Amino acid sequence: MFAPLTMADQYVSDELRSFILKRIDSVAQIEALLLIRSDPQSQWSAARLARRLYISEAEAAEALSRLCASELLTCTDEIYALDGVPEQNLALIEQLLGVYSRHLIPVTNLVHSKPRRIGSFADAFKFRKGS
């Protein structure tokens, strides 16, 4: 018997699903990519991104750092850009942004379904020696 299709299965290709599961850890990362792509000539710092996304500067810096580690952004002197990102990654970013703009809920559900998020949540309830 087959499992029922989810909304993500209907709108997100296998290639894009794999990309999201391997390289995107949060919706803030997708939003950061959207903003930077929308105005690539601007100087994008963590502080500026935080103001635009209504998140803390620490959250913005974390999202940007992870995007750089995944080769989805480059960083020079704490300014983030798409310049220098490998072509294959740019193509996947374009695909992600296209699907995200039309099917926000399935994409965000996919991001939030990542197994390690559950582990991180469970870790908050572990008792530690000396607690």
Please name the defining characteristics of this protein.
single chain; 131 residues; mainly alpha; two-stranded antiparallel sheet; 8 helices; disordered N terminus
How is the biggest beta sheet arranged?
Answer: 2 strands, antiparallel
Report the end-to-end length measured between terminal Cα atoms.
47 Å
Q: What integer is the average pLDDT?
A: 84
Percent in helix: 55-70%
Radius of gyration computed on alpha carbons = 16 Å
Number of helices, where a helix is a run of at least 4 consecutive DSSP H or I residues:
8
Helices and strands, with pairings:
Elements: H1 7-11, H2 14-23, H3 27-38, H4 46-53, H5 57-69, E1 74-76, E2 79-81, H6 87-102, H7 104-112, H8 115-123
Antiparallel strand pairs: 1-2
Helix pairs in contact: 3-5, 4-5, 6-7
Can you walk through the features of this model?
With 131 residues, the protein is mostly helical. It has 8 helices and 2 strands. It has a two-stranded antiparallel sheet with strand order 1-2. A hairpin with a 2-residue loop joins β1 and β2 (79-81). The chain starts with 6 loop residues before the first helix and ends in an 8-residue tail after the last helix. The model is unreliable at 1-5 and 117-121 (pLDDT under 50).
Short description:
With 131 residues, this protein is mainly alpha-helical. It has eight helices and two strands; from the N terminus they run H-H-H-H-H-E-E-H-H-H.
